[in-house]
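thread: overnight batch results

M.L. [08:02]
morning all. the overnight job finished for the chain we discussed friday. pasting input first so we're all looking at the same thing
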Amino acid sequence: MYRKILAPIFGSPADRTTLAVGLGLAQRFSCHLEALFVRFEPLETQPFVPLGRDMSGFAAKHFIEAAIRAADEAQGVASTMFAEAIKETGVETTETPGAHAKPSAELRIVSGGMAECIERASRLSDLIVFCGEASDSNMQRAYDAVEGALLSGAKPVLFVSPTIDAGGISKLGQQLAIAFDGSATAAHAVTAALPFLKQAKTVHSFEVTDQKASANLAELKRYLALHGVEPAPHVISDQKGVDVALVDAVRYERCDLLVLGGYGHSVSASSSSAV
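M.L. [08:03]
and the structure it wrote out:
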């Protein structure tokens, strides 16, 4: 079971969804949610030099003051959203979580590089929750930081669509899909998603291949049977391309959560996905 969920927040509108999903999962799995805000400190970074020229003292002072104001504003927004989410859910806040069977949460504020801090925090976490769009320029650094945690720490990441509503959050993972090709990354995703798999009402497994039967899905079914999970296997044609074929099949079965290996597939989908 998950015991610690990491939810990086950034003082952006997407934080509401991240916190709602993170606290909902903390309640579902009776575990601890750590909402992590990484504060940018310009005095701890290398001097900012525009266009390859030295910056004047006045310009440097202006840049530092503006960066501090932006950090203060983002921290204030993140803190307010956390407080509102806690009030709405009633989850207990604590900085000293234990092995008790009840949900808890904390807001942790650290200073440093975003990618480094998130990756470090992910090392002793069971799941990372992230909401945001890579196409949003304001969230690109955040997206890159979470991607780094996925690569460096090999921790599962639950990517949540910003358009998910309260009903979607409460039903997340009831109709679950697994994209499985027998690779190490796909296998890691399956074991990382076992808490979701065990609570799902329906589980579908998919492999995009030109074969009529799948030995990979057969082995997956044998393994999941040991955990009391019975997936319905689907062998799908790759005529449309792996990503399109997989997304179409998952949508056809009305799945709300997709488990797949990080960088084992390239899937452009608006639905939530756990890696």
